[in-house]
Fold Cell division ATP-binding protein FtsE.
Amino acid sequence: MIEMKEVYKKYSNGVVAANGLNVKIDKGEFVYVVGPSGAGKSTFIKMMYREEKPTSGEILINGTSLPKLKNRKVPLLRRQIGVVFQDFKLLPRLSVYENVAFALEVIEEPTENIRPRVTEVLELVGLKHKARMLPTELSGGEQQRVSIARSIVNRPQVVIADEPTGNLDPETSMGIMNVLEQINEMGTTIVMATHNKDIVNRNRHRVIAIEGGLIVRDELEGGYGYEI
């Protein structure tokens, strides 16, 4: 599903955030990306949805070469990828329903398909009863659930989550993890960058640890491995 081959990323300020990354992630895997601050985790994640381009090397998502992809085709790529951010990125003037529906409207999904799809994912994340509320009327955990619903409404093959529990309390974080686990069980590949030691140690999955732009550990059912 995802493959990196000899991927390097050097920023204009001289910082090397990826120093020869080689990794394969299979369809249906759940992978944590961990490491100290400044290790290169965010760059690793952003390169997967073409927010950043590598300086050299190859990145493949379901057979598509990201470095070679023309800019006008990036929106098409992102229909295959759902992205969940730490700060939700919801549209404040749109309701819960409208925020999720917007992800389908921008890809010109037929109108008759939108309502059942939005209703389905809101039910999955437990927010069907709050469909008409605005983001400001929701808790942080509920806003993140809306963000997850929006990321999966177009049925992507991969969900990339960048610190999705970073702004949430422990109990709410576990609720978000339950939702992500459900999505993974339905066959969606999930790659999640996190600093949350408790989540990684409790919900065991493959762990890729990055330090200094290098993958220093890659283990199935791994633990967090860092003191925080």
Summary: Strands lie at 2-10, 16-25, 30-34, 56-61, 64-65, 81-84, 158-162, 189-193, 206-211, 214-219.
